[in-house]
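During the no-cost extension, the postdoctoral fellow (Dr. R.K.) reprocessed legacy sequence entries with the updated structure-token encoder. One reprocessed record is reproduced below for audit purposes.
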Amino acid sequence: MNITEEILLEAEKRALDVPPLNGSILGEPAKIIGAIGEVLFEKFIKANGLTVRKEEGEQERYNHDFVVDEKFKVEVKTKDRSTPPKGYYDCSVFNTSLKNQKPDYFYFISLLKKKDVLVEAKFTEGFMLGATDLLTLYRKGDSWKKGEVDARNGKVIQGDCQQIEIYNLIGNEEFINILKGENHGTDR
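Re-encoded structure tokens follow.
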């Protein structure tokens, strides 16, 4: 999905309303990354004929970002990347988030970033990767501790987390069908 000027402006506005992110690895830039992901998710859900409501309640907003069709709680996780994502790339949920967040689904988005560009114009494309429920995150994912090295790619793990590879996510078409009640999901 292209990241337009309209999307960036809306994301910048939202990022201003986000309180300081305690424990965030990226710090302040995480606010704009997360806000862009949220705007993209809303557009994606609405384009598929569903309603989406941003969670505003004090307690609820720490558990999940959105309620889709007044039924499903969804937490959006957005990551920036310097290359387009591949199926074997990981999607992460940090354990600090898992202590509080118990949505029906985690939905993952990757933003393609360009180097040496101002933050506002850094991201040009968003990849809508797919979703997972909590059970599948643990069943199909890997648990990591901060400082461990993933031998597959040499990456040092930045914090205790659960990771799942993109190809283990519920694809977009299946996710939309689940949300519409047309599919209850398959045994992944």
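The first helix runs from residue 5 to 16. The CA atoms of residues 59 and 100 lie 10 Å apart. The remaining legacy entries will be reprocessed before the final report is submitted.
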